[in-house]
């Protein structure tokens, strides 16, 4: 989004960290990881054998067995399919929000990837779902649609990056991206504010709603 790709690569270079993109792990041995790097056509471009003292793997997300096996509820990877109102098209008394929602990829990549689901985007989903569940209980038609806006503070330790995407899934009306030490401080302040807000049981205080609205950020369309 915006200049985020170049910024991230710059931060990695400044910290002497090398990266391999469009790659998949084929085998892991003790102290060595085998990687296949793919070209734009998805064919193997080169092979890597990376030695390591400590390695961390983040496996691809899959839905849980309890819902993934229900026909008409999930896609082949076990994510729940929803309409604009966060209802499942087949079982309209089932609503879904958050990481378990099936969202098409932002773009085709050599190694298939899913669309990221950030915190504020999920808050938008949940707000939409709750309003529509309330409408269903009262015998009314659903009406609330989430904006799926992405507002994120990414902490890099002593600096960080902030971005705003409206909506998160392109095409976007807003794609704003900045970095600096102020993001690190803002992240600390936000964490304290968020925990306090949750303890008080107020998901969207009026002052937060007002400030975000001035920025063009709302949870519902």
Protein architecture, described:
With 221 residues, the chain is α+β, with helices and mostly antiparallel strands. The protein has helices at 4-14, 65-68, 119-137, 181-200, 206-214; strands at 23-29, 32-38, 44-51, 150-155, 160-166, 174-179. It has a three-stranded antiparallel beta sheet with strand order 1-2-3, with no helix packed on it. The model has no long low-confidence stretch (mean pLDDT 90).
Strand content: 15-25%
Mean pLDDT: 90
Major sheet attributes = 3 strands, antiparallel
Low-confidence sequence ranges:
none
Principal-axes shape call: globular
Q: Helix count?
A: 5
Multimerization status = single chain
The run of helices and strands is HEEEHHEEEHH
Strand-helix topology:
Blueprint: H1 4-14, E1 23-29, E2 32-38, E3 44-51, H2 65-68, H3 119-137, E4 150-155, E5 160-166, E6 174-179, H4 181-200, H5 206-214
Antiparallel strand pairs: 1-2, 2-3, 4-5, 5-6
